TrEMBL record:
InterPro entries to which the protein is assigned, alphabetical: DNA/RNA_pol_sf, RVT_2
Provenance organism: Tanacetum coccineum
Keywords carried by this UniProt record: Signal
Positions of the Reverse transcriptase Ty1/copia-type domain: 14-200
Highest taxon above the source species: Eukaryota
Signal peptide residue numbers: 1-21
Name of this chain's protein: Ribonuclease H-like domain-containing protein
Amino acid sequence: MCPLILSSLVLMLTFSPVVKPATIRTVLSLAISRDWPTHQLDVKNAFLHGHLSKIVYMHQPPGFVNSTHPDYVCHLQHSLYGLKHAPRAWFQRFASFAIRIGFQHSKTDTSLFIFDRGSDIEYLLLYLDDIILTASSTLLLRRIIVMLHGEFSMTDLGSFNYFFVISAQRYASGMFLSQSKFAEEILEWARMQNCNPCRTLVDSESKLGHVGDLVSDFNLYRSLASSIQYLTFTRPNLSYVVQQVCLYMHDPCESHFTALKCILRYVRGTIDHGLLLHFSSTTQLTAYTDADWAGCPVTLSRSSAGSEYHSVANVVAETAWIRNLLRELHAPFFTSTLGYYDNVRALYMSTNPVQHQRTKHIEIDIHFVRDFVVSGHVRVLHACPFAFSVCKYFF
């Protein structure tokens, strides 16, 4: 299995201080729009800084066994790498120090810390042992860095340029985020570094289903699917098709592997593509959603109204989270979120207060969306199917 994917799976088994990708993109976008400096720090041996809140014992390590008492065990005083408690202990130690020097915990993302003292504002993003800082002034930025150096052993990496296989290039007009090196590693792992590129991500005429023989190497399929899923951080145009191949990770067929290879061939031809963050004064949040369970060859659903409305509820929840995040970051939206989708029945249900027998299975979603529509935070609008196909494949 790919080392990167293996480490990611290990981190998923325990609590890990990992900031959300959407939070990173939002904070960096605000920093670019406000022309704030960005800085990066790396904590040395981060998990060794944690203090254990519970009693933990371990066997005597090989080569250091007490010959007089070989059956004794060690009582740990500090966390160690490989210990399940280590990520949580490190995060609690860091969070308590950040709060002590004036930061506040974000309610929308636990790995985001906000410093707010009038005109002095600073954001701190924590991803395991990597820290991204951005502040309203260079003086405030340097002062916080000195405080962090005084508490933890750190490496000052200077201006933000590389963060967990994501490279960043700062320009006068914005910042370009790229994962081209990571994409090359994925292609090399799949032995497709010299493959023929393709111009499209997916065959729009066919639909994936449980058809054909199972793949011979399950681990390879799952590793590649997980890897390209992380590639969507700077390549949001891959999100839809990557989600499709990830749905079949439990028992992938050869047709799924063919679709996966098609994605990799597209990545091979667009290896230098990335995400450009530029100055923006946007005051409107717009969301698009579409669902077609009626055409799904797996579920064989006869009606997609329920699935359409469930997808609308998911989008409303996501945009509500983004609005709360921006409010904490002192960049609130004062206009309604525009939500576009192409199902007329779902559009009527979002404003119709009357309950029907056919909507019992989605009553929670209906009430959830209606509350946001009535409050004025969300406006649901109808869009033609073509608009969704454009967003789905060329976003």
